[in-house]
Amino acid sequence: NRLHATDVTSSSFRLMWPKLLSQETGYYTLEYAPTADLARKRTQQVSGAHTSLLLSNLAPETTYEVALIPESNVHFFPPQTTRVTTLAEEISPVQVLISESGPRSFHVSWAPVLDSVVSYQVLYGPLPGNSVKVLEVDGRHNSTVVEHLAPNTTYLVTVTAIYRSGKEKSLSAKACTQEGERGE
């Protein structure tokens, strides 16, 4: 029953604390700074009615020292402190490779493969045009074969990584199918 963080992401977290003050009896001063650089301390005043606050625009994979100082005109409350480490930044696929392209299919692979990805969505459709199909690929895999395509056609392929946090990041590449055999 003290100051703690919930909903931690790569750039934010929510602080929760017990109700020590009320609107009438004072306010809180919140101070927070990266442990590695306490000089970059930020300060915020929060009404005594609050018992939580969302801090955002934080750096990823960084430990913050947080102090909540109840400023009461009735009682003395000692400051409450906690340490919170933000999550690693979610990285989008940085490479999409098209290989083994034939008249009717091609192979799509991507990197890096990350533990924080639940699944990948591979969207593909001919250019120009807006008919897009989707393949779902398990997060443990980093390649798939796209089939039943038209020969001699340029496709736009977009790989979207879907993270456990619910975030999505995408990267696109173009792929061309080979000309079909005569008489096909």
Automatic annotation (TrEMBL):
GO terms for cellular component: extracellular region. InterPro entries: ECM_Regulatory_Proteins, FN3_dom, FN3_sf, Ig-like_fold. Residues 1-90, 92-180 form the Fibronectin type-III domain. It comes from the Eukaryota. SUPFAM superfamilies: Fibronectin type III. Keywords: Glycoprotein, Repeat, Secreted, Signal. Pfam families: fn3 (PF00041). It is found in: Secreted, Extracellular space. This is VWA1 protein. It comes from Pteruthius melanotis. The lineage of its organism: Eukaryota, Metazoa, Chordata, Craniata, Vertebrata. The gene is Vwa1.
